[in-house]
Write a structure and sequence with these properties.
With 320 residues, this protein is mostly helical. The protein contains 13 helices and five strands. The protein has helices spanning 17-30, 55-69, 85-89, 91-95, 100-104, 107-114, 123-137, 151-168, 207-215, 233-246, 250-257, 261-286, 289-318; strands spanning 5-9, 36-40, 76-80, 143-145, 176-178. The strands form two sheets. Strands 1-2-3 form a three-stranded parallel beta sheet. A two-stranded parallel ribbon has the order 4-5. It binds tryptophan.
Length: 320
């Protein structure tokens, strides 16, 4: 079977190196192997916050991040929820296929509710995984590169596809998750790398900002640098970061640094990251806002054509 790849991100802030090594690098590889869609999931931003915030700026930044890392708009359809009415319309029949009890059991939704700062949990919080099923199924996506937290949502998409096919006839292929094989990159404070925790290096960070972030990174007091993930997680994480950027095993870097201490480790990591980000920064600087807007408009048009065809098929199968 010919796979179709679909993946996406919520436009809530800049992408960082954790995203890059966790999933973005994989996308750049996949774009040469399969037809691929990348979604700027703008309607999903209002699942866990009351307002979309600076949605236009975040959308543009996400798009520039994609283009800067080498996602090629000639190969990949980059598009946004809010530009594709027919994708959003799939939500209605899809919601009829899922029970309220099933919506309430989704562990990722439960976790997001537990961490939410909203005064009240909205209906969208419970139903966005079904909307996400529409994201995947509108283009008959079969391969979905995602992190572990997204697996329950992928199960929803499979459930929706299976039930639709059972009730109305074979329309949708069952999508599969594709998990990255990369080691988990932690933030510079040893916690989960996250834009909201201030411990992440954004792909758009300047050289100076990168140097500053790494200078402030937590380490330990031992002078001899060794790669021991359990005993010395912060040191190991900087070695992992430098190793990923240099394409070298972290233990080998540790041996080279030897008794150079944290200062040498940080210098090595800073140079590795800045070297790695140089071509990405260069591509970003070459792009104009006009280019970006044109690329998104073209992607939206292609995605919309696809969504129109699927919605027609869905209506016909259902007898509307
Ligand atoms: N929920 C995903 C996230 O928060 C973003 C997303 C929206 C997505 N639609 C998708 C991911 C479809 C994969 C497929 O990161």
């Amino acid at each position: 079977m010919n796979d179709v790849v679909l993946t996406g991100d919520r436009p809530t802030g800049p992408l960082h190196l954790g995203h890059y090594f966790g999933s973005l690098a994989n996308r750049v590889r996949l774009q040469d192997l399969h037809p691929m869609y990348v979604l700027i999931a703008d309607y999903q931003v209002i699942t866990d916050r009351d307002l979309p915030g600076e949605i236009r700026r975040h959308t543009m930044e996400l798009l520039l991040d994609y283009l800067a890392i080498g996602i090629d708009p000639a190969k990949v359809t980059i598009f946004q929820h809010s530009a594709i009415p027919e994708l959003n319309q799939l939500l209605l029949p899809f919601l009829s296929l899922v029970s309220v009890a099933e919506l309430g059991r989704n562990p990722t939704v439960k976790d997001e509710i537990a961490h939410s700062s909203q005064a009240a949990v909205s209906g969208l919080m419970f139903t966005y995984p079904v909307h996400q099923a529409a994201d995947i199924l509108f283009c008959k996506g079969t391969l979905v590169p995602v992190g572990k937290d997204q697996l329950p949502h992928l199960e929803v998409a499979r459930l929706v596809a299976r039930r639709f096919n059972d009730r109305y006839g074979e329309v949708f292929p069952l999508p599969k998750a594709m998990m990255g094989a990369q080691p988990m990159l932690k933030g510079l404070d040893g916690g989960k790398m996250s834009k909201s925790r201030g411990n992440a290096i954004a792909l758009s960070a300047t050289e100076d900002k990168t140097a500053l972030l790494i200078r402030k990174a937590r380490t330990d007091a031992e002078r001899l640098i060794t790669f021991e993930e359990e005993r010395r997680p912060e040191v190991a994480n900087l070695l992992t970061l430098a190793g990923l950027c240099l394409g070298r095993p972290p233990a080998e870097l540790a041996e080279e640094i030897g008794d150079g201490g944290a200062a040498t480790l940080k210098r090595v990591a800073t140079e590795a990251v800045n070297e790695f980000l140089r071509p990405i920064r260069r591509r970003r600087a070459e792009l104009t806002e006009g280019d970006a807007r044109r690329i998104l408009a073209e992607g939206n048009e292609r995605a919309r054509e696809r969504a129109v065809r699927t919605l027609e098929e869905v209506r016909a199968a259902m007898g509307f």
